[in-house]
Design brief:
Blueprint lengths: L1 H10 L23 E4 L5 E6 L5 E8 L13 H9 L10 H8 L3 E6 L4 E8 L3 H13 L7 H20 L6 H9 L14 H5 L3 H11 L5 E7 L3 H12 L22 E7 L6 E7 L7 H13 L5 H9 L7 E6 L4 E8 L6 H18 L3 H17 L4 H15 L5 H9 L3 H11 L6 E7 L11 E2 L50 E4 L5 E6 L5 E9 L12 H8 L9 H10 L3 E6 L3 E9 L3 H13 L5 H18 L3 H14 L13 H4 L4 H11 L6 E6 L3 H8 L1 H5 L21 E5 L5 E11 L6 H12 L5 H9 L3 E8 L6 E10 L3 H18 L2 H18 L3 H13 L6 H11 L2 H11 L6 E6 L1 H8 L6 E4 L5 E4 L3
C-alpha cells in the first residue's frame, strides 16, 4: 500500500499557489473542500462533495499496520484485512467480494507498515448499501469468524505472498533490508506480509485480540467523497456508524528513525533473477518531517533525469544498466533513502557501487541548476492534479492526511514547505543523511553468480518454502456461516434498498478533420486543469517483419530520445519544465504518442510532441543504449513466470505464421537482427496521417485544439501506407495441455483459452457480457471457487482481448504449486458447465452489474481518452457505450447461451502451465488430453504420460 501513501507525497510536493481548505475558509485558486466531524464513538468523518459523476467513494482507514504486530505473529495486520472482507453479522457470507461488483462497484483494501485501508467506489444508487456493508464490516464482523474461515483465508494470504514475493525475482530483498536495517525490537523489522509459518500459526484468539485492540471506531478515519449531500450524509453516517463500539485508546507511536554505525553488506542468490541488482539504503526520517520535502527533491536531482549525475555515470558513461533510481521512502516511524540499480547481465556490482560513488562525487562538485529545481517543481504541480483526478484518489488523500497528521487539508502546509525548500536545504540533507554516512547494501544476483557480488558481503538468510506435490496437506474449506447471535442495535441493520438508478450518459464529443486526412476527436472536461491527448498511428507490431519482431517497439522508444533540434537531455528538460509528460508506445495494432500536461501548457506540450513525431533524431548512441537495455529486459523476463506464460501462450494461440505469436518487444533472437536502418525504414514506410487519429480530453475546447494542431496539415503530408497482412491464426490443437518448467516455482501460472473474435465483430460486446459471471472480477465463478471456496489462489479471472484481428478469450490464474492439478480440474469443470448452467438470474445479474459499472468506468481523463480511441479505431458511434447498454438490455438467456457455446466451449480450450516440473508434471498427466512439455520459448521438448 505504499502507492496510497505516495498519493499524499505527490500532493504535498507541489510548491505553487495551491490550497485545500474547509468550506468555512475563503476561496483559493485550487480547493479540495471538506467537512469534518467526529461521532460520539470517536470515529472521525471527512466528507467531500463532487457532483461531476453520479458515483461515491468510501474509504475507511484504520490506524494499524504491521508496526503494531508482535514478533512471531508477523503479517497479522494484513491477514486481518483479508478476514474483514469475509463475513459480518448482517451481511450474507462473502457479500463484500461478491455483491459490490454486482452493484456495479469496485472494492479492495490494502495494508502497509502503519495502516490498513478499505475502499469502494459505487454508483450513487448503492450509497446506502455501501454504508451498510462497510459499517457492518467495521463494527459487526468479529463474531462471525470461524475456525474454518480462518484456515481457508490463511491459504489465500499465503498464495498472495507466493505470487508477489516468493515466486518473483528480487522478491526477498525487502525482507533482507528490513531484517538487517531495523533492530529486532523495531516495528519495521519484519515485512508487511509476514512469514508463512507465522501466518499458519494464527488462531481465533489472535484474530479477536487484534480486533478488540485496534478495530474500535476511535482508531479510524472514514472519508466519503463524491455525489453526496453533506447534511443527508451526516445523518446516514450517524445511523450506520454511530452505534459501532469505541475501542481502547491506541497510543500514538513516536518516530523511531534508525542509525547505522557502519556499512552493512549482504548478498543473496536469487533462484528467479537473471540480472544482478544493487541497493544502497540510507536511514533518513519519517513522513511529514520537514526534511522529507528536500529529500524528495534531492532524489529527483540525483537520478531523475538525463542530466542527473547518476544517470550520466551509470547509464551513459559506464553503460552498466538501462537506468538508475533513487527515492525517499518515508513511513510513519522512519524513512529510507534508496539507490537501486538493476544492472546488465554479467555486470560486477562492485563496479556499480563505484559508479554510484562517482556519481555522488560529481553531484558534490557540480551541484544543480535553477532549471533543474524548476523542472522538479513543475512536474510536481502536474502530479498534484493527477493525484486527485478521481473521487477515490481524493478520498485517499483526505483519509491519509487526517489520520497521520490530523489535518485533511495538510496539503496547504506541505505545499508551502516544498515551496520553501532552498538550494541550501537540499545540500544540507545530502550532507546530513547521505554523504559519508553508513548504509545497508544488498547484492542480489542470479543463482551461481556470486562472482558479481560486492566484495566482503555476508550471505543473507531468508526463510523459503519447500515445494511438494499434492494438495492434501492444505485442502481446507471455508465452511458455512457462523451460528451467532446478532448484536442488538437501535437501528435496523438489514440490507437497504437501492436508490434512484443513475443512467450513464456519454460525455459530449466533438470531431474534426485536417486536410492531410488526420481525424480529430475530443471531449472537453474542466474538473481539473489538465489535458491528456494522443496521436494514434495504425500499424504497430502488426507491421513488423517476423524475423525482426520488435522493430516498431524499439523505434518508438528511440523516438523519445531527442529530436533533430534537441539532444535527449534538452528534450527531457523542455518537457519537464512544463511539468508535462510525452511517451511513445507500440502496441499490437498501433503506435501512440501520448501527452499529458497542465491545460495552460497544452500548446507548448503539443509542439514538442509534434517535433518528436516529425523530426526524429536517430541518435546512434541512444540506439545502442536502448538495444542493450532491451536485451537486459528480455533476459529479465526469462525469470518471470507470468512473462514466460504470456509469451508461450500467444505462440500456441496464434501459430507460427502470425506476427502476434511473437511479443511486441520481440525476443532475444529477433531483436538481435535489428539495425538502426530497420527503424528508419519502418518510420519511412508506415508513419502517415492517413488513417491516423488525434484524441484529446481535458480542459481545452474544440477551437483551441484545432487551432493548435493545424500546423500538422502542411508539415505532415499524407502518403499511402500498407495495411497489416491478414493472416489467419493457426492455434495448437484444442484439448492439449502444455507444461513449461519453472524450477522451484512456489506457484504455477495457468492460462487457458482459444481464438475468439475481432473487436469489430457484432458479437464482441455480447462475449464480454457473457464473461462477467464467469471471470469478470471477484464476483466471478472462477474467483469465487478457486480463491474464496478453495483458497488455491490469490485471484482468478477471464477476459477477451480487444484487437481488430481475431483475439483470444482467456482464463488466467496463479495457484500454489501443490494445487495445480485440482485447480486445472476446477477450471475445466466450470468451463464445461458454464453454458448449460447459465440461468435467467445470471442474465439479470450481468445486466445490473454492467449497466451500473458504466457510471464508474469513464470518470478519469484517461478513461475518457480510451473511449475516444475506441470510437476512432473501431468506427463506433459517439454514443457507442449507451448503444452497447441498450443491446445488453435486449439480450435474452438464449443469446447468452449461444455466445458461450460459440466462444467459451471447454473442448475448444488450450491449457498452459508454467510451474515446477519436478513436483507437478506427474500430477498434471492425470488430466484428459495430451500433456506436452515445452521449453520457455514454447518449443516441444517431450511429452508427459497419461
Amino acid at each position: 500500500m505504499k502507492h496510497v501513501l505516495r498519493i499524499v507525497t505527490l500532493l504535498t510536493m507541489f510548491g505553487g499557489a495551491v490550497t485545500a481548505q474547509s468550506p468555512q475558509k475563503g476561496k483559493a485558486s485550487f480547493a479540495l473542500p471538506y467537512e469534518k466531524f467526529t461521532l460520539a464513538n470517536g470515529l472521525e468523518v471527512v466528507l467531500h462533495e463532487d457532483h461531476s459523476d453520479p458515483i461515491i467513494a468510501v474509504a475507511t482507514l484504520m490506524h494499524v499496520g504491521s508496526s503494531r504486530e508482535k514478533p512471531g505473529k508477523t503479517g497479522f495486520a494484513h491477514f486481518f484485512e483479508h478476514m474483514s472482507f469475509n463475513d459480518s453479522e448482517n451481511a450474507p457470507q462473502g457479500a463484500n467480494r461478491k455483491l459490490i461488483p454486482e452493484w456495479g462497484g469496485r472494492r479492495n483494501g490494502g495494508t502497509w507498515s502503519d495502516g490498513t485501508i478499505y475502499y469502494e467506489v459505487v454508483p450513487k444508487d448503492a450509497f446506502d448499501k455501501i454504508l451498510w456493508i462497510d459499517s457492518d464490516r467495521l463494527g459487526y464482523m468479529i463474531n462471525t469468524v470461524t475456525k474454518e474461515a480462518l484456515e481457508a483465508e490463511k491459504q489465500v494470504v499465503k498464495n498472495e505472498k507466493r505470487e508477489n514475493v516468493d515466486n518473483v525475482p528480487y522478491g526477498y530483498t525487502d525482507e533482507i533490508i528490513r531484517t538487517n536495517l531495523y533492530p529486532a525490537d523495531h516495528p519495521y523489522h519484519w515485512t508487511v506480509i509476514g512469514s508463512l509459518p507465522d501466518l499458519q500459526a494464527a488462531t481465533l484468539d489472535d484474530v479477536k485480540e487484534f480486533y478488540e485492540m485496534y478495530y474500535g471506531a476511535n482508531n479510524a478515519t472514514l472519508v466519503i467523497a463524491g455525489d453526496i449531500d453533506i447534511k443527508e450524509t451526516k445523518d446516514k453516517v450517524q445511523r450506520w456508524f454511530g452505534e459501532i463500539r469505541k475501542g481502547p485508546e491506541v497510543k500514538p507511536m513516536k518516530p523511531m528513525p534508525v542509525k547505522l554505525d557502519q556499512v552493512k553488506s549482504f548478498y543473496f542468490e536469487d533462484n528467479f533473477a537473471r540480472l544482478p541488482e544493487l541497493r544502497l539504503v540510507f536511514p533518513t526520517v519519517e513522513n511529514y518531517h520537514r526534511d522529507v520535502y528536500a529529500l524528495d527533491i534531492l532524489s529527483e536531482l540525483l537520478s531523475g533525469s538525463r542530466k542527473s549525475p547518476l544517470y550520466r555515470i551509470i547509464v551513459e558513461q559506464k553503460k552498466q544498466a538501462p537506468g538508475v533510481n533513487s527515492s525517499q521512502d518515508g513511513e510513519e516511524l522512519a524513512g529510507e533513502f534508496v539507490f537501486r540499480v538493476r544492472a546488465n547481465a554479467g555486470t560486477s556490482l562492485d563496479d556499480v557501487k563505484a559508479s554510484i560513488e562517482e556519481g555522488l562525487a560529481l553531484f558534490e562538485k557540480e551541484g544543480f541548476t535553477d532549471n533543474d529545481l524548476q523542472r522538479v517543481k513543475a512536474e510536481q504541480e502536474t502530479s498534484l492534479y493527477n493525484g486527485i483526478g478521481t473521487v477515490l484518489s481524493k478520498a485517499f488523500t483526505l483519509a491519509n492526511a487526517n489520520e497521520f497528521i490530523g489535518d485533511p487539508a495538510y496539503i496547504i502546509k506541505s505545499a508551502a514547505m516544498t515551496q520553501a525548500v532552498t538550494r541550501e536545504d537540499i545540500m544540507r540533507v545530502y550532507n546530513q543523511y547521505i554523504k559519508g554516512k553508513p548504509y545497508l547494501m544488498t547484492s542480489v544476483v542470479p543463482k551461481g553468480q556470486t562472482n558479481l557480488v560486492v566484495k566482503g558481503a555476508t550471505p543473507a538468510t531468508v526463510w523459503q518454502e519447500q515445494i511438494v506435490a499434492g494438495v492434501q496437506n492444505e485442502n481446507v474449506t471455508r465452511g458455512g456461516e457462523a451460528d451467532t447471535l446478532k448484536t442488538k442495535t437501535k437501528y435496523d441493520r438489514s440490507e437497504p434498498a437501492f436508490g434512484e438508478l443513475p443512467l450513464f450518459k456519454m460525455q459530449p464529443i466533438w470531431d474534426a478533420k485536417l486536410n492531410n486526412g488526420l481525424s480529430i476527436i475530443g471531449t472537453e472536461n474542466s474538473e481539473i486543469p489538465l489535458v491528456t491527448f494522443d496521436i494514434t498511428i495504425p500499424g504497430g507490431h502488426a507491421l513488423n517483419p517476423a524475423d525482426k519482431a520488435g522493430v516498431a517497439n524499439l523505434m518508438a522508444q528511440l523516438m523519445m530520445q531527442g529530436t533533430a533540434k534537441r539532444t535527449p537531455a534538452e528534450l527531457e528538460e523542455a518537457i519537464g519544465l512544463l511539468g508535462s509528460s510525452i511517451t511513445i508506445q507500440c502496441a499490437n495494432e498501433e503506435i501512440r504518442i501520448t501527452g499529458g500536461c497542465l491545460a495552460r501548457n497544452f500548446e507548448a506540450t503539443f509542439a514538442l510532441a509534434q517535433e518528436m513525431l516529425l523530426e526524429p533524431r536517430w541518435d546512434v548512441a541512444e540506439y545502442e543504449r536502448l538495444k542493450k537495455a532491451l536485451e537486459t529486459s528480455l533476459k529479465g523476463n526469462e525469470a518471470n513466470a507470468t512473462a514466460i506464460a504470456n509469451r508461450v501462450f500467444i505462440k500456441l494461440i496464434y501459430g507460427p505464421n502470425h506476427i502476434f505469436s511473437l511479443p511486441v518487444m520481440g525476443t532475444l533472437q529477433t531483436t538481435a537482427n535489428i539495425t538502426l536502418d530497420d527503424l528508419k525504414s519502418y518510420y519511412a514506410s508506415n508513419f502517415s496521417p492517413t488513417g491516423a487519429a488525434f484524441h484529446i480530453a481535458g480542459a481545452v475546447d474544440k477551437s483551441r485544439v484545432v487551432k493548435t494542431i493545424t500546423s500538422l496539415e502542411k508539415q505532415w503530408p499524407a502518403k499511402p501506407v500498407k495495411s497489416a497482412a491478414s493472416v489467419a491464426p493457426q492455434p495448437a490443437p484444442a484439448g492439449n495441455v502444455y507444461f513449461v518448467d519453472f524450477p522451484d516455482a512456489k506457484q504455477s501460472v495457468i492460462l487457458a483459452g482459444r481464438i475468439a473474435l475481432s473487436a469489430t465483430d457484432p458479437n464482441s460486446d455480447k462475449l464480454n457480457f457473457a464473461n462477467e459471471i464467469l471471470g469478470g472480477g471477484s464476483s466471478g465463478k472462477l474467483f469465487q471457487t478457486l480463491r474464496v471456496e478453495k483458497g488455491y489462489t490469490y485471484g482468478a479471472y477471464s477476459f477477451v482481448n480487444a484487437t481488430k484481428a481475431p483475439a483470444p478469450f482467456m482464463v488466467s490464474t496463479s495457484v500454489r504449486s501443490n494445487a495445480t492439478l485440482p485447480s486445472l480440474q476446477i477450471i475445466q469443470s466450470i468451463l464445461a458447465d458454464y453454458g448449460k448452467n447459465f440461468s435467467a438470474q445470471d442474465v439479470e445479474v450481468t445486466k445490473n452489474k454492467v449497466l451500473k459499472a458504466s457510471t464508474l468506468s469513464y470518470e478519469s481523463l484517461g478513461s475518457k481518452l480510451g473511449a475516444l480511441r475506441e470510437i476512432s479505431k473501431y468506427n463506433r458511434s459517439k454514443k457507442f457505450i449507451e448503444e452497447s447498454q441498450q443491446a445488453l438490455v435486449k439480450m435474452t438467456l438464449a443469446d447468452f447461451k449461444s455466445v458461450i457455446g460459440q466462444y467459451m466451449s471447454e473442448p475448444d480450450m488450450i491449457y498452459l502451465i508454467v510451474g515446477d516440473k519436478a513436483s507437478q508434471l506427474k500430477e498434471v498427466t492425470q488430466l484428459k488430453g495430451k500433456v506436452i512439455v515445452l521449453d520457455n520459448q514454447g518449443n516441444p521438448v517431450g511429452e508427459g504420460s497419461n
